[in-house]
Amino acid sequence: MNCKLLIILFVFGLFFSCTEKVNNPVKVDTVPDIFPDYTDVTIPATIAPLNFTVNEEFEKINAVIEDFKGNKIKVQGRKNIQIPIEKWRNMLKENTGGEITVTVAVKHENQWKQYRSFLLYISEYPMDEGLVYRLIAPGYETYSKMGIYQRSLSDFKQTTLLENTLVSPSCVNCHSFKQTSANNMSLHVRGEYGGTILQTNGQTDVLNLKRDSLIGPGVYPYWHPQGKYIAYSVNTTQQMFHSAADERIEVVDLESDIMVYDIESNKVLITPLLKTANFETFPSFSPDGKTLYFSCSTQQELPGDYKEIRYNLCKIDFDPATGSFGTKIDTLVWADKDRKSVSFARPSYDGKYMMYTLSGYGNFSIWHKEADLWLLDLQTGENRLLTEVNSPDTESYHSWSSNSRWFVFSSRRIDGLYTRPYIASIDENGKVSKPFLLPQKDPDYYLMSLYSFNIPEFVNGSVQLDLPKLKKQLVSKERK
Amino acid sequence: MTKTARLHLFITLLFGIIVWLFFAVFYRHHLHYQEEMQLFLTSGAYFLETIASPGGLSSYFSRLFTQFFVDSFAGALIIALLLIALQQLIWRISVVFSKKSHCYLLSFIPSTLYACALMDENFLLTALISLIFILLAIVLFQRIKSFKARLVYVLLVIPLLYWIAGGAYRDFYRYPGIFPVILLIIFLSVLIIPVLCRYLPENDKRKSRVISGCVQWIVLILLAVWGFKTQANWEKEEIMAYDYFSRSQKWNSIIRLADKKAPTAPLSVASLNLALANQNQLSNFMFEYFQNGPEGLLPTFQKEFIADMMAGEIYYHLGLVNTAQRLAFEGMEAIPGYQKSVRSIQRLAETNLINGHYEVANKYLTILKQTLFYKKWAEETATYLYNEKKINAHPEWGKLRRFRPRKDFLFSEQEKDQVLGILYQNNTNNRMAYDYLLAYTLLEKDLSHFYEYYRLLENKKKEEMVPKSYQEALAVVLGQVNFNSRQNEEAFYKQYGKTYWYYLLFKYK
Questions:
Q1: Which residue is closest to A245 within chain B, CA to CA?
Q2: In this predicted model, what pLDDT tens digit does every residue of A30-78 receive, in sequence order?
Q3: Interface of A with B (CB under 8 A)
Q4: CB-closest option in B362, B363, B410 to A241
Q5: Ramachandran quadrant class, A72 (left: phi over 0; alpha: psi -120 to 50; beta: rest)
Q6: pLDDT exceeds 80 at position A352
Q7: Which of B45, B334, B363 comes nearest A415 by C-beta?
């Protein structure tokens, strides 16, 4: 046999050794323990491939993704399953409204083991194009590099929106969009070159929201559905550190109020009802723009009595035409009666639901392991724990897709510290699906990443920020 | 080998040995510091992520080499070899340029300056590696004779060099945006020396060669002295030494270091006190050394890597595991240049393991398993995950589990004595918490609280003998001695310099 032939045979052998046939597998009547757990989840037809691995030792992993028309995608890997994106897209498109099965087999010590197939439900509800979040180490007082990034949900592309290295040292936080509109955004830059960046239909301004009548600059934002106003809380915040094993950080508001910023007039609108000695925070507008929801708590001796602060879900009327507030405050959820506390009340854009986080006390629920998501039906008044999506660990921030059929929320269920974005669907009847973790190209990403996903927000397009121009604006210190 | 070649080899070896000795023995803790200020992973993902931007490959090699600084002998050898490589490349370029051999010593100037630059702990290897790549490309270019081949080479190499070293300037110095003057001088010298060699007159007369050699030696030595004077920082080296010994729990080394020269910087004093406490000698001997107030016992939180890590060591050994964890996290976030720290990750893994937060401990251990020098430790530590019995039996982690607070309270920088009191009440076997509590009041000169705590806790401590510092403080409290601050300090020092009384009267005012 000559040398050339040997080389050809070797290359040929290498090629075919890449995908090995699953021969005589031992059948196991359980679904595989995969990470991320994508078993029986509901996904949009445009989602990026749900790459995964199996939580056990193996030399090879094999997956067959199959629809009921007989189409198959076969994938094999040594560390994980990375599904070819084009084939995946086609399969989801063809099976929208239906389901596909995934059969996983692993090879260990020369023996294949095949698990029971699991299902993926392909929802007929579309999802917004992207997700915007902040990536930040879940730290204490010091922060290194952080940034706000946008991720395309149909693939794995992540692009930088703004990093704190643009004008260093700084902190960037609290990005917010008008009902997922990529053209209407507000976010804060803190530090020497601080200001609030306001982007409205291509125009970018840097605002100073620390007006004389307020205790501080704007913090937690929420856009009015008409895009004319943004409600902000203003907070004086203090961090404290626990000494016992299971708790780490406590963040309390020593004082907090709510104001509404009028974009056109560049003025802040205030009512004495939202600027009291009590604590008002986390504002959000109803989809018709006529109600302002918020969390409110009675004043306590702070920081000593921090465990006694409990927020109810309250609301006040708002007239978008005049920018005036109602004359009374109503309470929707009396959480403090049950020694619970409401944060992040966010109405669905179809006006049907109010989702909020309920924790034992305080408002910085990300550091509360007991924090869970709740859903209030604004039409029937039914108020329930979202058992479909909650975990024994923290669930906290959440936001709705533009069609109100999906919501994304942050959870610390993987390791108890690093916040990860999960997405779940809710249909017309309020049926909520099992959530799925935002897919990554390499499933080990979440294991290796030292960053938390902070404030995940859907966006209906690509957010465009002219960074060189923005840098000039920030450095100039001229503020609107 | 010709006589000249032998001489050149000797000079090069001499240079390499001097550099190696300096960094391996005399300045070694700077290397340890550099090593802990990064997290180099051996994974393909880390490689791809690092080389994705222009200059990334130089940064990658810089970090790859820096991980060997964990051992100062290996680290210093790498530095010496890289500097020799730089010198040799410059020399080869100069030779082709000038065809003369009389300016060999000049080719050491960039390497000498870079050696001096590396005495600044924020100077990284990246610029050196970038230079080596660029000069290597020039040397290869010189070897190509055909014009067409040279043209093709240039067209190929320029984009390649841009990718290897193009954007590496961001990683020359640990603080982004800073471009030190010495680096500018190094780059200029790399450009000038081959040209200088070409235009320096060559004279075959022996006298001229000797003069030329002497002038080159003088220039080289003057530059080295200037670089050394401006770049070396022995105070930092001392703090880094204390930090290194604290990190590696070499308590006797710390005490020996202090016996040679008593530390004065708060962080060094804090490390010494930690070493004394770990050897059960704090209450007897702390005032035999210089003390600079409570800051030298429990340093105040600052957003600075080494300060946070050193303070974190103290809280860790005291049993305030959450505070140690916080400071490890804060320290890592404070690293300029946005790097992560292998040391911080290691401490985060330990503290989460002690606290029973196994999932997140496993995350850190998984990361450490992708390092060269911490892999073994991570694999061994991973055997403790979810194994309560094994952790409880561990001499250090088991003890810290017993010492850490069972009942929650909020840590307060302003009320450290109360924190220490709670810690001691939590477990009265925590001798270190007891010593620190009383030491804190002594250093604060708060004798009423010292006496209160001492009386309150003395029954719980079954001391055979009251420690020396406590005896001295009690003598003051009980009026057995009477001093006043108008006494002559020098005379008082001669008689009582190593007592609490001297501190009480003359220090930490």
A1: B355
A2: 999 999 999 999 999 999 999 999 999 999 999 999 999 999 999 999 9
A3: 137, 139-145, 165, 168, 240-248, 250, 303, 414-418, 442, 444, 447-448, 450
A4: B410
A5: beta
A6: yes
A7: B363
Chain A CB within 8 Å of residue B411 CB: yes
Q: Do A415 and B334 touch (CB under 8 A)?
A: no
What does pTM read for this prediction? 0.93
- Beta carbons within 8 Å of A296's beta carbon, 6+ residues apart: A278, A279, A280, A281, A311, A312, A314, A329, A331
In terms of Cα–Cα distance, which of A439, A390, A363 is closest to A47? A439
**DSSP label at A25?**
P
Which residue from A139, A144, A244 is facing B408, i.e. has the nearest CB? A244
| Min Cα separation A101/chain B (Å) | 30
Q: Which residues on chain B are in Cβ contact (under 8 Å) with A444?
A: 45
Q: What pLDDT was estimated at residue A15?
A: 47
Q: Where are the alpha helices (DSSP H) in A67-118?
A: 85-94
Instruction: Kindly state the greatest CA–CA separation across chain A.
Output: 95
A1, pLDDT greater than 50: no
**B314 at interface of A, judged by CB pairs closer than 8 A:** no
Express each pLDDT in A425-468 by its tens digit: 999 999 999 999 999 999 999 999 999 999 999 999 999 999 99
Residue with tokens 């300029």: B336
Give B6: exposed, middle or buried? Use CB within 10 Å, 0-12, 13-18, 19+.
Answer: exposed
Predicted local confidence at residue A10, as pLDDT: 56
Give the span between the Cα atoms of B64 and A301, in whole angstroms.
53
- The CA-based diameter of chain B, rounded to the nearest angstrom, is 95
pLDDT of residue B96: 84
Inform me whether the C-beta atom of residue B159 falls under 8 Å from chain A C-beta atoms.
no
Task: Identify the segments of chain B with pLDDT beneath 50.
Answer: none
